[in-house]
Amino acid sequence: MSFFLNVVFKTILFLSFFFLTHNSIAQFGVGNMLKNKAEKLVKDKLKEKTEEKRDSYDTLSFNYAIAFLDKTESFENQQKGEGLIKTADFLLSDGEPQTELESARDIYDFGRLNYKMRNQFMAETNLKLAKLKYEQLSARNEPNYYKTLGLLGLLYSDMGRYSKAGEYTEKALDGWEKLQGKESIGYLAELNNFAVLQINLGNFIEAERIIMQLEEKLSAEKDNEMLPYAIYLNNEAILNQYMGRADKALGLMDDCTEIAKESLTEKNSTYLQFLTNKAILEQENGNLERAEMLFQNVLDLQESRMKLNAKNDPDYAHMKSNIAALYAEKGEYDKAKEALLLSLEIYKEEFGEEHLTTAGTQSDLGNLYRFLGQNEKAEPLLQSALYTRERKLSKTHPKVVKSQEDLALWFWSNGQMESAASYFTKVMKTSQEFIKDYFPALSEAEKTKYWEQLKPRFFRFYNFALENYKEYPQLLDDFMRYRLSTKGILLSASTALRNTIFSQNDEELTALYERWLDQKQQLANAYALSDEEINEQSLNVDSLESATNQTEKELSVRSEAFSSAYEDKNTDYETILKELKNGEVMVEIVQYPIFNKQLTTKNAYAYVILKKGVGKPEIVINKDGDLLENRYYAYYNNVINQKMKDEYSYAQFWKKLENKVLGASRIYISPDGIYNQVNMNTMQQPNGKYLIENHDIRYIGHPNDILFKKTAQPSGNQTAFLMGDPNFNSKSIAQLPGTQKEIESISEYLSPSMKMQKYLNNDATESNLKQVKSPKYLHLASHGYFLEDKQANDNLFGVQLQYIRQNPLLRSGLLLTGAGADQASGSSQSFNQSDNGFFSAYEAINLNLNNTEMVVLSACETGKGDVKAGEGVYGLQRAFIVAGAESLVMSLWKVDDTATQKLMSGFYRENVKGKAIPDAFRSAQLAMLKEYQHPYYWGAFIMFSR
């Protein structure tokens, strides 16, 4: 048997070497010259030297998997001169006796050379024979044995045989750990490869866990191992891109290319792949000109590098397929089609029809044809892509789901609704599973990015379902299920985390939570510093952000808060219908972008009406979302502020619903989009009456909110925390003496039954507010602020511009004592100073308002913020709800001082008399309506409950 195997080994070696020389004669010309002309003495000397060098290279060179968008390749961290040494060694050993280990090493080397030249059959043959040879020799302690296993893992990954890839990569990992330990470069190389394999399998959470381990180990050695570190940065960038974090991905890719260019020439294939990834990420971040410039540079370098064979090379095809996406985005469809057709031709020739790389281009080309209305050309490509992906990947792999959705859209466009519905059913079910699987391990910022990536799929389904539900009733049930499970999904995740912490008696978890709050406060302080102050105090804001993010992720995983909250939201609409009482109506408003071959920038609104006694939801569609959000809202805003008669807003914002809510005494509104910024109570009907006079309108965050009873316990903390009339210490910020009267008046009503905590003038500080501990009522009376992104300028409201633009919660807040002090004195502040007078929504989230029944923000525009479809308002509203408030009173426009004092006094007076909070608030507004008539005076404030 041993003799037979040796013959096979030598035959394979000969065939491998013949095949390589036939395809790459120039590479071996030097070796042939050495073989033919070297004298024996020189030959012996060279043999001795090459053996010495080769042993060294065996412990230094490793293959690293490199993730690319839709493709994975590997880079061999080959030492300088290694290729020539190994070739010379083979040629110089002609006729020389070899040990069995040397023979095994030769077979491995030729497997590796074939792998580099994409000769997959010969690579697999040699590597499997090398593995068998090492095992036959009981040489499992040889480094090259584990390198053989690792390279087989990479080869099978390239071939799309992920099960085999995982098997060999895990064996290699285990081997390196036993042989050299977890700190060895061999172990780290295989750990990198295992991370990329997880990315390819769509196991993003596991991939991120592994990449974090690599960061810890490789960052310490990045000066010595620059290329492995660059590869790690590239792989982390690609993972972030798949998770929807395009901005972070681009930053990592910038670092990667900067490091790589120190070690690689500009024509090196790996460096070109890095640049390709960077070009794609520039495009994803909207930098189209920079992306095109980079793509063209890469194509030029690739053509120069490959010379005559450039346009037949898979690398060239990959670059053309990537730039095709840019052409399509720019509307240059002919150029996109030409690039994809060329790429597909190369991929078919190189890899065959049933390869994942081929499937990727088939998918892109098929979608382009669908968009262009060429359905007969699109279908076979989309079907073929799905067929390959389903055979090569798991049923729940993101690329399989994408192919299923591609076909759902094709069937829809082709009028085959039943088939489209069938595919959409699969797609949406798996997409819900993605949320359940991925969200628990992410921080809020990461959840936001991932949801932004996944949300368009839900919008496409909404369009399909709302267009076809009358013919296919099941679509209405599906639409309601997915809407109810995802509305406010990010807000639910945040509130669930806090609620879980407070409800569990877990000291370790509570300590972790308090550490996270402390880190967030440190971040808020750091955001208020100038660059000069940050440098003076030796702060690293990026590191602080990273540490805070990691603590939050750990909290999310350990608390299991999201998983339970998501299950709670999976309520069907029948349950909500049963909870509604006679005379009650639920209006769920859904803002969604209109689909026309693709999602457009124009929005529509669906009003979903649930009524007692009506078995199914009634739906009214308003396709004039753009008009509502721009012209009609501007008109509404103008007539309110100018105190003019509003003759049109009722017709635009409510008329379509009029017949559906006739006779309803109470209307629950769960708003979305522009309906977060308009008070429906202020809509004046043609008969002159306002809606508030006919209906008890109550704003809630989610239709499910009516299912949950109030959690605050009357026997709990009977404290009212009142703060107003801060001392701003600035001539440019007007004092608010009227707010002191407001606080004193409220105190008179509440003091007989509650303990008072009053903070006025110099005591109305951030530090005092941050000490609040679950009062029953929290009332804050001051100036509010909200900035649109375009209004932000450097260090406005105590926060640097770069951070204001990154986080909408930093663009809204309240002014408290000392807000103008730094401005007046020109002094700077320190990192440990948390009381600059600008109390942002970002800081409000950290307040302890667990079991607080009501928060009143008696200030201008406290209901303003960034409005996001399905998520509500990112501003003070969101912050106080996350902090724990059951109900929140806030304003939508600049309020009249005197009218506000009267409204608030009347509100608390009615509440003390025994009326429930919503009833007391409505009574106060109706009283103000009688006195002032125009909604400018009484309609600025709305109550939002959960």
Describe the structure.
Helix 11 (226-242) packs antiparallel against helix 12 and helix 13 (269-284) runs antiparallel to helix 14 (288-306). The strands form 4 sheets. The chain has an 11-stranded mixed beta sheet, with helices on both faces. Strands 11-12-13 form a 3-stranded antiparallel beta sheet. It has a two-stranded antiparallel sheet with strand order 1-2. Helix content is 58%, strand content 11%. The model is unreliable at 13-43, 45-60, 78-92, 711-715, 790-798 and 823-833 (pLDDT under 50). Among the domains are: 1-201, Serine Threonine Protein Phosphatase 5, Tetratricopeptide repeat (Alpha Horseshoe); 491-569, no CATH class; 582-707; 719-945, 3-Layer(aba) Sandwich (Rossmann fold). The chain has 946 residues and is of the alpha/beta class.
